[in-house]
Design goal:
- This protein is mainly α.
- The chain has one domain.
- The chain is built from 3 helices and no strands.
- It is elongated and about 55 Å long.
C-alpha cells in the first residue's frame, strides 16, 4: 500500500546514493588531489578507515 501510494499517486521514488562520502573522506580526497596531505591527516584517515571496517 505504501509503495503504491508514493510511486503511483504522488510519483515519488527512493534510491540509494551512489557516491555518498563522509566529511573525513571528502577532506582527505580533496587534500590528496591538491597535494596538501600531512602526516597527521594521513594517520587520522587510516584510523578512520580501520574504524569503518570494524563496523562492517
Amino acid at each position: 500500500m505504501y509503495r503504491k501510494t508514493f510511486c503511483e499517486e504522488f510519483n515519488y521514488s527512493f534510491h540509494i546514493p551512489k557516491k555518498d562520502q563522509c566529511q573525513t573522506c571528502a577532506v582527505y580526497r580533496n587534500k590528496e588531489v591538491a597535494g596538501e596531505l600531512t602526516t597527521d591527516l594521513k594517520l587520522a584517515f587510516e584510523d578512520h578507515i580501520k574504524r569503518n571496517k570494524m563496523c562492517l
